[in-house]
Structure formats: structure tokens, C-alpha cells
Amino acid sequence: MSGSAQKGLTYVYVNVTPVLLYGSVQEGQQYPTANMANNIFYSSVHDGLSNFAVNVANALMVGSASIPSEITDKQDDEFIEELHIVDELYFAQIESSQSENLSDDDGVGVCYVKYTEIDWTAYMQEVEGVVNGTYDYLKLKGDTGPLVYPAGFVYIYTALYYITDHGTNIKLGQYIFAVLYILSLVVIFDIYRRCKTIPPYAYIFMCCASYRIHSIYILRLFNDPIAMLFLYIAVDLFLQDKWSTGCLMFSLGVSVKMNVLLFAPALLVLLLVRHGTMATAKYLTICALPQIILAIPFLLVNPWGYIIQSFNLGRQFFYIWTVNWRLVPEDLFLDKKFQLLLLACHAVCLLLFFHFKWKRLYQCVRFRVWMKPLPHTLTSSQIILPLFTANFIGMCFSRSLHYQFYVWYFHTLHYILWSTALPSVVRILLLGCIELSWNTYPSTVFSSSLLHGSHFIILTSLWWSPLYTPQKKVMVASKMH
Questions:
Q1: How many helices (H) and strands (E) does the chain have?
Q2: Distance between CA atoms of residues 126 and 149, nearest Å
């Protein structure tokens, strides 16, 4: 994309919605709320109003139109900030409508798919603040809002900032992420080579059948794939009984994005089982130290600001982006009681699996406050099944899933499904239903319901997984036959 066009589109991204709304607001009327703005966007898809938005954008780029101050001056900051969320949706429409005018050197991503801006520019703006000497997390912001990721994210994307010429060489960034994707598959395949649970044909679905995964990994430049790469490296190291290095990799994953913490309950169980109480304290220290060391520059300036921004568990999500909760009204989605209910269900489900299922994987272990280390290594199923189950439970009860969150569990679904007693046809069908849900944009009541239904079937099947049957009972049953 040429420099002038990019500048114009960036300008439109910030200002299209107020202009569009101004055209529908008469003097003396109350200005629309953010919810009304969202409705205008959705109606524009069907009523053709997006063409008007494109015309306004073109006018702005040539300087023949301006933003009416009546809109921006009379609204509070929260209203304007919410409108910018809708702007992003219009921006995607405008960029798509003009894509035929772009040459191959002007923004075409790898795999011949047009690049669409989502978070990359915001990432670059956030780390640019650090490059310019700002270490107060409360002051680091981008177009999509404040910086909400831990310090590891800052270091990695600062490196990408310089490698991609301050974020302008997007194609180079996509090639870097393509290499990251291949590396991730190599690590994941090595995990499954060790566990020998998944049949060879399932690898085809894992690496070739998901357009959404390819898009997230290669085209959109999200930080989620980087965090998951560290996680999968950690799992591979756990399988090799290299727990110190594995815990270090796990911590680095958390430092990029804290979704990796969904695996933490199962990791704690594994550490206690394999190493006992005393050594577990050492491994937890290994997990904690990188978080502190990486965050030192920010902790020295504003420690509380860093903690509440990078590990903000109460951050509110926008309803327009949710994949899993479109089936409930927006007011319920935003209700704190509903979110606390989901958290409680998450905790209860983890406790049930721990008490009734995970313990059965370790027949010779007595769970108590002071535990002794095992004299032998753990099997692959004793390691992978609790880790992937804990993460899957977190996904089932998440208060919101955005499209890039699909990578949080996509490559674990195949192991989870083939750990159940479901027929292979049903397993493949469930993979297809989940893929359909994540590829429906914007999400609908049907797509969200389909996702929850698929999750419920998988979770129920996991509960009855034959891997949880104690070995001695299997032997007794075989003798009876």
C-alpha cells in the first residue's frame, strides 16, 4: 500500500463513524449511543450504507470533507472510544472495497491473501512508546486501547518493530510468522510422535484444514501464536522429563500473553506428582523469576500500573467480537454476576476433573500437603491429558472468545478427541463444527450454540475417557473376557 493511501486510510479509520453518524442525526436529536452505532454498522451490511462510508472515506483522503466538531465536541471520551471500535469494522470494509486498486507490493500477504489490519499497528504503537522511553504501562497505548500484555510481549514486538522497519514492512513480518507457524507444527508433531495417540490422517486436519488458523498464524501477526509456541515447547520438554527448562518456557509463554495460565492448574498437579512438595517450590520459582526479571524496567517506574495492566483478569470485552456468547443478550454478557458464574463453573469443573479423573492417572500417588517425588518419569498421557484438559475447560467457560483465541486450543483438540471413546467419524464431525463456529463472522446465535454444543460433547466424552481407567482394572476386565 502506498504511503499516501496508508495515511488516508489511517485517518479514515479514526473518523469515519462520526461522519457517518452525523449524516443520520438531525439537529436537536440526542446523539446515538455506542449500541446504536453498532446497530448502524450491522444494518449497513444489509442496507448498503457502507457505500456511503466508502464515499466519505474517499472524500476525506482527498481533503474535500472534514469531521463535524458537533459530533466530537459534545461526546465524552468513553463514547468516542467506543465509536472507534465500530470504526475498525468500517475500516475493514473500506480497505476491502479498495483492494483491487492495490498492487502486489502494496499489502498483499503471503499465500496471495490480502492483508487486513487488525492489531499489528496497535502493537507497533504500543512498543514504540517503550522505544521512545516510556516505561509507565498506564501510558502505553495504541489505536485499539492500552497495552494489556506482559513484558515479554514488549521485547518480542520491539524486535519485530526494528526488523520490519518500524512495522511498515508487513510482508516481512508475515514471512517471520510463517516460519513461526512451521516451527510450531514441528514442535506439536514431536509431542504427538511421543504420545502415539493420534492416527496419521488426523495430522492432515491439524495442518491443512483450518483457514482460520492459517490466517491467525501467518496473516494477522497476533501475539497468540508466539505465546502458544512457548507453551508447546514447554510440553515437549515435560515429555522429556526436562522440567526446569520446561517451566522456563512456560513462563516465557505467560510473559507474552496470560492465556497460557489456563494450563497452570494441571502443571501444578504434575509438578507435585513428579517432584513432590519441596521441589515444586523450586519449579514455581523458575516460573515466577522470568516474569519479574522481564518486568524490571516497568516495575521500577510504576509497579502497580504494570500489574493491573498486564495481568488484568477483570478486563471487559466487547460484545461485538465474542465468538462464544452471541446466544445471550449483551446486558447479560456484560453482567459481572454472569462472569463470576462462569468463573465458578470453571473452578468447579477443574476440581471435579482433578478429584475424580486426574487422580486416577497416578494410582501410586497419595495426594496430600507434603508429597514425595516419584522415582520414575511420567507417561505421555499422564502429562498431556491433564494439561490439555485444563486448557479446554478454560475455553469452555471463558467469558469471551475472540477469533484469534482459536489458536489457544486448536492443536490440542485432536489429542483430546482421540483420547475419548467417540467414533472417528464423530471426532471429525466435531472438528468441522468447531471450525464452522470459528469461521462465522460476525458470530451468530447458531454459531455460538454450535460451539457450546461441540464443547459439551467433547467435555462429556473426556469425562468417560478410557485413559482414566486404571491399568489394573483394564487387566482384570481383559482376563474376564
A1: 21, 2
A2: 10
What is the total residue count of the chain? 481
**Number of Cβ within a 10 Å radius of residue 476:** 10
Cell of 28: 436537536
How far from each other are the two terminal CA atoms of the chain, in whole angstroms?
69
In DSSP terms, which residues pair with 141 in a beta bridge?
Answer: 146
State whether residue 145 is helix, strand or coil: strand
Cα 118 to Cα 95: distance, rounded to the nearest angstrom: 12
354 by DSSP, 3-state: which? Answer: helix
Interatomic CA distance for residues 167 and 81, integer angstroms: 24
Query: Structure pTM?
Result: 0.77
Q: What are the pLDDT digits (tens) for 165-220?
A: 999 999 999 999 999 999 999 999 999 999 989 999 999 989 888 888 988 988 88
Identify whether the C-beta of residue 268 lies closer than 8 Å to the C-beta of residue 294: no
Residue 396 belongs to what H/E stretch?
helix 380-396
- Write the DSSP symbol of residue 329: -
- 3-state secondary structure labels for all residues of 156-177: HHHHHHHHCCCCCCHHHHHHHH
Residue 83's alpha-carbon distances to 34, 75, 78, 130, 176, in angstroms, are 6, 11, 9, 27, 33
